[in-house]
Amino acid sequence: MTELTSLCVFCGAKPGNNPALADAARTLGTAIGQSGRTLVFGGGRVGLMGELARATRDAGGHVAGFIPEHLERAERADKTLPELHVVSDMHTRKLGMFERADAFCILPGGLGTLDETFEILTWRQLGLHDKPIALLNVEGFWDPLLEVIDRIIVEGFYHTAHQHRLFTVVTDPEAVLPTLAAELAGQSPDAAPAPGHDARALG
Predict the structure, then answer these.
(1) Buried/exposed 52-88: b ≥16 CB within 10 Å, e otherwise
(2) Which of 56, 101, 116, 190 would disulfide-bridge 8, Cβ 3.0–4.6 Å?
(3) pTM of the full structure
(4) DSSP letter (8 states) at residue 15
(5) What is the pLDDT of residues 40-85, one digit of tens each?
């Protein structure tokens, strides 16, 4: 049984066009900070990343950022973070974030967020880790992705040999932590769903 002490969040380095997405990032960050947990993220101070990290710190939480050298300027590395790792490349960044976290949450973002998402899902499918993953589907942002995954399953391209779910869909940022903590504690995601928890998951 593992306790949820640190959460890695993948999200965009841009704010997006929908203010609800930034609101969700701030709500999740506040929840992480108030719970005394550590946020592990991409180390930038702009976009949803910045909103998330500032909210976590404002609520008293610890923040650990990982950013590659070539993105220090583009993503505006937050040099005020209590823990900032400037690494050599994207692969080292993703590995560092993985090793530092007990679980993962995916917020809206762009291609970089999708890259991180598919890698962590693939690693779990291959049995390289069994850390829980929550997809925060704010205002249906990830609905198209879920449709693609459904198509992958229908067309027979999904390996079903494993016995666990790869991820759980959550619609309320305040449901992220209790959902992931329950899974780490060995409870089924459907055993006692939190408000904003969607039973739909892959696996």
Answers:
(1) bbbbbbebebbbbbbbbeebeeebbbbeebeebbebe
(2) 101
(3) 0.89
(4) -
(5) 999 988 999 999 999 999 999 999 999 988 876 666 777 888 899 9
Q: What is the amino acid identity at position 39?
A: L
In angstroms, the CA 37 to CA 71 distance is 26
Q: And the tokens for 165?
A: 């779910």
| CA diameter of the chain | 48
Domains of the chain, start order: 6-202 (3.40.50.450)
95: exposed, middle or buried (Cβ count in 10 Å: 0-12, 13-18, 19+): middle
> In what helix (H) or strand (E) does residue 26 lie, and over which residues does it extend?
helix 19-35
Angle at 130 between CA 128 and CA 135, to 5 degrees: 110
pLDDT value at position 154?
87
**Per-residue pLDDT, 189:** 54
> Which pair of tokens denotes residue 86?
């400037």
